[in-house]
Design goal:
775 residues, alpha/beta, eleven-stranded mixed β-sheet, four-stranded antiparallel β-sheet, 17% strand
Amino acid sequence: MSDHSNSAAQLSLQKQALLALEEMQAKLDTVERARTEPIAIVGIGCRFPGGADDAASYWRLLRDEVDAIGEIPASRWDIDAFYDPDPDAPGKMYLRQGGFLDGVDTFDAPFFGISPREAMSLDPQQRLLLEVGWQALEDAGVAPHTLVGSKTGVYVGIMENDYSKIYLRDGNLDDLDAYYVTGNHFSFTAGRLSYVLGLHGPAMALDTACSSSLVAIHLACQSLRSGESNLALAGGVNLMLSPELTITMCRFKALSADGRCKTFDEGADGFGQGEGCGIVVLKRVSDAIADGDNIVALIRGSAINHDGPSGGLTVPNGRAQQAVLREALANAGVQPADVSYVEAHGTGTSLGDPIEVRALGAVYGEGRSNDERLMIGSVKTNIGHLDSAAGVAGLIKVALSLRHKEIPASLHLKTINPRIDLDEIPVAIPTGRIPWPEGDTPRLAGVSAFGLSGTNAHILLEEAPASPPSRQEEDRPLHLLTLSAKSQDALRELSGRYAEYLAPLPPASLGDVCSTANAGRSHHDHRLAVVSESPSHMSERLAAFTSAGDQTVVHSGERRDTEGSKVAFLFTGQGAQYVGMGRRLYETEPSFRATLDRCDQILLPHLDESLLSVLFSDERSASLLDETRYTQPALFSLEYALAELWRSWGIEPGVVMGHSVGEYVAACVAGVFSLEDGLALIAERARLMQSLPKNGSMAAVFATRERVEAAVAYHADSVSIAAVNGPESIVVSGESNALEAVLDRLRTQEIQVQILNVSHAFHSPLMEPILDAFE
């Protein structure tokens, strides 16, 4: 082989090696982007003390500086029997207060398909998770039934099983059955939620003590980034149903005598207990943006670790806390000075608070001046320490604070703990609600949760990306709201909640509310529909139905057994077109407009006129729209856009039908071919038909097939029956003069006929010259 040949071969090998390296680097870059992609919080469900039964009421509690701690309910245990102010009294507790939920003994078991017998054995924490998980999905605009079979993960923090203790303590050993296992073991807490929703993603319950829910969220983010899940529900739950844990914590001297967390205060004497449940719905941010989700905040990064050796198993380790903060910052790819607020673990203990603040100062103080102090606070001062739900309570607080661009007050701070030196540590603690200043970069915040077991977690949140400027829509004059429930009483209760919610809303928000309710909820048998032009008017109608069952202002009823019934879409053929068809929908419906715009782009290589100008231009469109070359692509596009509009409202066809041009649209909607292929096919069909002589006509005849066949028989060589649309709805087609003779014969029999607005005699022998080319 010559030197020249050797050189060429070497260059070829070098080129191949370079291409292989570039391909490998591209793959590594893709993996790295996936590993660090932000995770979007797209839905929130919660029940926290103080009546915070959803995100809106939780924010009001935070904004209004509500102290949600109250007397231990008699429904939990007899506080008078267990209370003793002496902290050393055996078998007693020295506090009478905590943060408790109302109504944890109530549960709509049939709604979730759970029998009364099984519900008896079901830990109320499982019940609460089902309710709050469902609420979170609806807040995200995700109809739960659409998740069946999906790669949706469930990650739940949980650490207490009081109900199991009560069940056994009450002497039910003879009644133990399989329901006791599935109703009380932690693994079934996450598994039941996946089972009820029909999910196929990972499902796990986690117990790392006080950091459980934040660890669950951390693992959910990892699952999403790896592609193991495409959606995740993550959070935690905690209920105090039995006094044993409180008595035990009193032996630790860990609890505050007044039941409150006085975080960072010199009077901090332990933490106050609380209970609740919080669930966030998580998605990769790229998917959330593509799906048009309402993003509450972004999870930029997270980390978990363990204290390792410290002053004791339950004693916090400042070095380990610093390490987890730094790991989270590295995972998020941000600098300490970029973070302006941290939701501290902040239990309100004289030992733990100073250790945590010093760790925050050591890490977040880097590159920060005294004029740019790190703001810190703790929601535990409002609702108590929720143990396995504490981390998610703090995370939801920060997500809502980012949305509202405000930092709520941290309560019960009168005099700073003397072990926290604010002259040396660049932090500040807001004792009143303050605006969250805007900077050159998006607002960033950290959330900490440090488990009594030693497992630490830290998550970094960023405010949601600014939405792109939306096109100024011309709103439709009326809106339709549909609601449903599994019983009539539940429907009226839901109607009342919507009436209250709608009353203060501005008119522009009505369309969004209706869209989410109609397409973002699963629909049940007891149904209601109401039409109105404004939120206040719709609220009045719903209130009338709620209070008095007024059926004159709404449409309400129960869906009967419809097994086997299907929704059918019928697509029409040529002859129904008119200039300006769909214009109002194009102006007011984003989904319809986006589909027509897409069809316009696909048709550009096939038409010498814009589809939109053919449909909507007042100058030439009248003549163009009646030319077959333009009529058929225009009808196809309009009908496909209409189908997509109905589907965007949650109405899916079980059957599609069509005639003539409509057959092609039906096939496309059914998935027989793509929109691109369908439009290319219909455009070529139209072009070929346009090339034929314009010597034919079509007409609708309102008579039986037998009578029409008898009339056509005199001109069978040039006129034929084109379509049988019904027992007395027949379409005839053929050469114009012959067709007119057929119609005259029918008119003499007093049969109604109607000439159709077409350019050619479609579905007649006059089409035969193009068949070979079309095939």
